[in-house]
Design a protein that fits this description.
This protein is of the alpha+beta class. It folds into two domains: about 1-175, Helix Hairpins (Orthogonal Bundle); about 190-330, 60s Ribosomal Protein L30, Chain: A (2-Layer Sandwich). The protein has helices spanning about 1-20, 25-100, 105-185, 210-215, 225-235, 265-280, 305-315, 325-330, and strands at about 195-200, 205-210, 245-250, 290-295, 315-320. Helix 1 (about 1-20) crosses helix 3 and helix 3 (about 105-185) packs antiparallel against helix 8 (about 325-330). It is rod-shaped, with a radius of gyration of 41 Å.
Length: about 325
């Protein structure tokens, strides 16, 4: 159960990450996630069926082995009886020959005894052949069952190794999130009073920056002090290739409409792209690892209709997510 929870946790994290992506990328990532989710359910169902089949096959194997042992014993007994009858036949033949010589018995009596004994011998030989055929058949069935059990055990072992590999990788990602949070907290400690906070949740690191540190009201030009904080952040992130970066712009719920901004969507997107340009051009962050997104007014941290709440909601969130490439690679094996 813990394994499934951890995997579910990774997939939920992936969904949360995807929810921030523009429509086209969101559709692609959502399709990949749904495929992975379907594969996971199929994997769980197959694993359960394998467990049930394995138990059934093991039971059949035990019964087959028991039948094989009984047949083998029966075969040995029949073979011994056959040899005994054959020996008696030979002895009687010898006696017949001797009695013919001594004329102690008539030829007809001896011939009748020989015919009866020969008939029994043929009957026992047929029974012995039938037992031998059944024994060979049961031995083949036992070998087939053993092969099926071995194959299922191998498959289960491979799945267990895959789960262990995923657990180790997830643990490694969790540890890297904790380490990155500590590193960023220490590096950006001087900006805490200016409205910059570092937190972690859902397996990600969140760097939340208030509007007052980065922008003037209704503007998208980054303040010099805010730029310093961003470049300080970039210095820390340069050597962390295992994280993808999402830049989210958030506004309050006060409508805006100017010659430049159609609404709060526009403002949030342009602020996110302004931060992205600084981090990629001046901070030297790989452009392939960073995604800007505008969230508008729809994800407030404080839903109250007050001046203080609106100030909290006007913010930039820099979300650092562990790369899922290695996890995807394991799931696609």
């Amino acid at each position: 159960m813990n394994k499934i929870v951890k995997l579910s946790f990774v997939f939920i994290s992936l969904i949360l990450l995807v929810s921030c992506v523009p429509q086209r990328k969101f559709a692609e990532l959502e399709s990949k996630y749904n495929t992975l989710k379907t594969d996971k359910h199929a994997c769980d169902s197959i694993s359960s069926l394998y467990e049930i089949n394995l138990k059934s096959l093991r039971k059949d194997l035990d019964l087959a082995k028991e039948d094989f042992t009984k047949l083998n014993i029966n075969y040995i007994e029949m073979e011994a009886m056959y040899e005994k009858i054959k020996k008696s036949y030979n002895e009687l033949t010898l006696t017949y020959e001797k009695r013919l010589e001594s004329e102690s018995l008539t030829k007809d009596e001896l011939k009748k005894s020989l015919r009866d004994l020969e008939s029994k011998l043929v009957k026992k030989e047929l029974e012995l052949n039938e037992k031998e055929a059944n024994l060979i058949k049961k031995e083949e069935e036992t070998k087939k069952l053993s092969a099926n059990v071995s194959e299922i055990e191998k498959s289960l072992k491979e799945r267990e190794e895959k789960v262990k590999e995923l657990e180790a990788l997830i643990k490694q990602k969790d540890e890297s999130v904790i380490k990155l949070k500590e590193t960023l907290t220490n590096a950006l400690l001087g900006y805490k009073e200016s409205g910059l906070n570092v937190t972690s949740k859902d397996g990600k690191v969140y760097v939340s920056v208030d509007e007052k540190l980065l922008f003037q009201s209704g503007k998208v030009d980054v303040d010099p002090n805010g730029k310093k904080a961003l470049l300080k952040l970039c210095e820390t992130l340069k050597n962390n290739d295992d994280f993808d970066i999402m830049i989210e712009g958030h506004t309050d719920n006060v409508p805006i409409k100017t010659a430049r901004f159609e609404d709060n969507w526009d403002l949030s997107v342009l602020r996110a792209t302004a931060i992205t340009r600084i981090m990629t051009k001046e901070g030297k962050i790989d452009s392939k690892k960073i995604i800007p997104a505008g969230r508008g007014e729809y994800f407030p941290v404080d839903a109250a209709d007050t001046k203080e709440a609106r100030a909290k909601n006007r913010r930039i969130e820099i979300i650092l997510s562990p790369s899922l490439k290695e996890i995807m690679s394991i799931l696609n094996k």
